[in-house]
Amino acid sequence: MQEFYTVAMLLSIITFTMSTVMSPGPNNIMLLSSGLTFGYKKTIPHMFGIILGFPLMVLIIGLGMGALFEKFPFVLTVLKVVGILYLFWMAYKIARNSSSYEVDENNQSKSFTFVQSALFQWVNPKAWIMAITAISVFVSSNENSMIQVLIIAFIYFLSLCISSNTWAFGGILLKKFIKNSKSVQKINVIMAILLVASVLPMLFE
């Protein structure tokens, strides 16, 4: 690896990826809500969609799509607007979620599927900002750029394995302190508000 990145640069990338994936944002708030409402088992597909979907997004952007946005910046603007509107809709759905207090494995309400979660990365404004920033800061314009993108995507994969489980288990832990289903719904309303709050700064990016 050192022929592509120094140890200091790798540590810098790891610090950047961990700080971005662990901080509150649409993915993490939705995982917290899913862990609280559906339990760990039903949240696993949601987690894997993020863990695999976002690094794939980094690869695609790093291997060419970034140039498209430089040439047609309005495309990124359109994606951001669509993503923010979709997040508002998700916040509404989270706020209205009235799943029972006890986790019912036969409950028909569901967390995100793997495909939904992976596709969600493409309308997640924070994901776009993270991916484009990582590529623009840590990938140099030389013959090793493809390897550099692969390294960044792999580090994101490892970081997301940690962060996704942390936030999902956070929801499960939170449920241990909740006494009834009304409290679950109230907390989901709070998480919906936090989801909207996490999007607002992106309106001014």
Q: Can you describe this structure?
A:
By secondary structure, the protein is mainly alpha-helical. It has one domain (21-97, 112-204). The protein contains 8 helices and no strands. It has helices at residues 7-22, 26-38, 40-71, 73-96, 114-120, 125-138, 145-175, 181-199. Helix 3 runs antiparallel to helix 4. The radius of gyration is 18 Å and the shape is globular. The protein starts with 6 loop residues before the first helix and ends in a 6-residue tail after the last helix. The model is unreliable at 103-107 (pLDDT under 50).
Which keywords apply here?
single chain, globular, mainly alpha, 76% helix
Helix and strand layout, with pairings?
Layout: H1 7-22, H2 26-38, H3 40-71, H4 73-96, H5 114-120, H6 125-138, H7 145-175, H8 181-199
Mean pLDDT: 81
Catalogue the unreliable spans.
103-107
What's the SSE pattern?
A: HHHHHHHH
Number of helices: 8
User: β content, as a range?
Assistant: under 5%
Q: Kindly provide the radius of gyration, computed on alpha-carbon positions and rounded to a whole number of angstroms.
A: 18 Å
End-to-end C-alpha gap: 33 Å
Kindly state the percentage of residues in helix.
over 70%
Based on Cα principal axes, name the global outline: globular
